[in-house]
Design a protein that fits this description.
Number of domains: 3
Bound molecules: thymidine-5'-diphosphate, magnesium ion
Strand content: 15-25%
Helix content: 25-40%
Strand order of the largest sheet: 6-5-7-8-4-9-10-11-12
Radius of gyration: 27 Å
CATH class of the largest domain: Alpha Beta
Number of helices: 12
């Protein structure tokens, strides 16, 4: 038999390579390539279809089995989690440094502890005194949280096994944990994975909800192996511009609920405050309409959020290449929309610099934003404000048509509730205007119709 060829498999991403390399060519992790014997060699030696134990099949519906959830006391956190913490679940919380992960988890832990749940907070980054100081600043010093500064997973598990299992366990952060059964410094791929595995096993066995705080790398993914995201039940990301007050908690993966719900918080002097009506936050609260500004009723999960989109057009005299800068939206989508406005509506942006900004540090991903962005651009180009109290939504096709989008009724109702009186949107949704009698809905079929409306041609 021919000698099996050696191959090397990255332990972080599973990429296979013929020779050993210090850095994985696919996921760029260091020291993760491990020699591996090809699987075919095993299957020639052993027949796997016999000699095992029979696995029992189970029906999908087990009567009397319900998913129990524990409220954290922070309604916005519960909402993002899909209705509260599931006992025995593992949650990975990612976010930029200083965004407020530790603050959020301390507030949640305090609220659970005050409601009578056993709560353990392990800080690997800050000394116990620092956490205590923060708690007293937040006015939570009286919460019966079991607080410890520790980094050894063996010490942590030994302690946890000697006491009543907590309902809520916070590990801040998984990158500082280390296990003495694994080689390498804390934060390396194998350490992070090994420590997470042990902690998650403890949580599953004892029915405790575990939160692992994870650092985020420069490109925005959670540092450490991607497998960490596969190991946990829920991956949450805490986002926001540090210079802005608003923080958005988003579920990226959730085995127990939807991933499109968000929680909105504002960082204030006394910690994170919940924002029940985010629309009021993201609108700039101006009375007189300005050119280049349009309001978009976005949808985050099941919740409508009104967001202001601002555009600025600067005409260039010289032949220099004009800049296009976008904050909070996709720059490729902006280029597409500019092309559609040029070729289908006869507007010229080619000699102008275009700046687009989504107010409040918000990041839009809803395709229905096209029409509002177009309205802001046209209004900026014409230097004419959009009619006061108008909202715009709809997807724009390359042919310059306005395509229908999901939940038009919900968007219009929220807009009417906040005092908007005119709605521009796709024609096909015109019947949903009966939902909000206070709002005058104007269904449009072509982008050119919107241009006429904004420029006052009709
Ligand atoms: P922190 O929770 O330490 O962030 P992370 O754990 O994600 O790194 O939050 C730190 C920031 O939050 C810090 O820059 C100051 C700010 N902050 C407030 O504005 N108000 C407060 O009451 C607290 C506790 C923090
Ligand atoms: Mg922290």
């Amino acid at each position: 038999m021919a000698k099996p060829k050696k191959r090397y498999v990255c332990q972080a991403c599973g990429s296979v390579s013929a020779r050993w390399q210090g850095q994985c060519p696919d996921c760029a992790e260091w020291n993760t390539m491990v020699e591996d014997v090809p699987a075919t060699v095993f299957s020639q030696k052993h027949d796997l279809s016999s000699g095992g134990r029979r696995v029992e099949f189970e029906p999908l519906d087990a009567p009397g089995e319900v998913l129990k959830r524990r409220a954290t006391g922070l309604a916005e956190l519960d909402r993002a989690l899909g209705g509260g913490l599931v006992p025995g679940s593992a949650i990975l919380m990612g976010g930029d440094p200083g965004i407020g992960k530790s603050t959020l988890l301390l507030q949640a832990a305090a609220s659970i502890a005050k409601a009578g749940g056993q709560t353990v907070y392990i800080s690997g980054e800050e000394a116990a005194g620092q956490v205590r100081l923060r708690a007293s600043r937040l006015g939570l010093a009286d919460a019966p949280i079991k607080l410890a500064a520790a980094t050894s997973v063996r010490d942590i598990l030994t302690t946890l096994k000697s006491m009543e299992a907590p309902a809520f366990l916070v590990i801040d952060s998984i990158q500082t944990m280390h296990s003495d059964t694994i080689e390498g410094a804390p934060g390396t791929v194998s350490q992070v994975r090994g420590c997470a595995f042990e902690l998650i096993r403890y949580a599953k066995e004892h029915g405790c909800a575990l939160v692992l705080v994870g650092h985020v790398t420069k490109d925005g993914s959670i540092a450490g192996p991607r497998v960490l995201e596969h190991m946990v039940d829920v991956v949450m990301s805490f986002e926001g511009e540090r210079s802005h007050q608003y923080r958005i908690l988003r579920a990226i993966k959730n085995r127990f609920g939807a991933v499109d719900e968000i929680g909105v918080f504002a960082m204030a002097g006394a910690g994170l405050e919940e924002v029940a009506n985010p629309s009021l936050l993201f609108l700039s609260g101006r009375e007189t309409p300005l050119a280049g500004s349009a309001v978009f009723p976005a949808l985050e999960g099941t919740r409508p959020v009104l967001i202001e989109i601002q555009a600025l057009i600067v005409r260039l005299q010289s032949g220099a290449t004009p800049r296009r800068a976008v904050v909070g939206w996709d720059s490729g989508r902006l280029a597409m929309l500019l092309a559609v406005l040029e070729s289908r509506c006869g507007l010229s942006f080619s000699t102008a610099e275009v700046y687009l900004n989504v107010a409040g540090g918000y990041r839009l991903s809803d395709p229905a934003a096209d029409l509002a962005v177009a309205a802001a651009l046209v209004s900026a180009l014409a230097d004419t404000p959009i009619k006061s109290g108008a909202v715009c939504f709809g997807e724009v096709s390359l042919a310059g048509e306005i395509r229908p989008v999901a939940h038009a009724g919900l968007r219009l109702r929220e807009s009417a509730k906040l005092g908007f009186r005119i709605g521009y949107g796709p024609r096909e949704t015109a019947d949903s205007k009966s939902d909000s009698p206070d709002l005058n809905y104007r269904g449009l079929s072509k982008l050119a119709n919107l241009v006429d409306q904004v420029m006052g041609r009709t």
